[in-house]
Amino acid sequence: MSETKVQGKNKGAIKMFTLSTCIWCKRTKQFLADQGIEYSYIDLDMLDGEEKEKALEELKKWNERCSFPTLVINNEKCIVGFKEDEIKEAVGL
Known about the structure:
Layout: E1 4-6, E2 14-18, H1 23-34, E3 39-43, H2 49-62, E4 70-73, E5 77-80, H3 84-91
Parallel strand pairs: 2-3
Antiparallel strand pairs: 1-3, 2-4, 4-5
């Protein structure tokens, strides 16, 4: 699966399912970058075929509605949407 990794401080395994055109996804990416936090993301709209199906399958485990952004933190917590306070709390800011 095509994950893009953004370097920064390790605050746990943060994986984000996004769309490249989604303003809330962009704001969430920018927020994490501004905090200097390491994370990875998958732009689902940039995937094709089997790779896209695989990513959607993984996303549906966390968010059946497949809305964006969906953040998965340490394979334990899921945050759907740009919720700055919830993100801060989840990563210990």
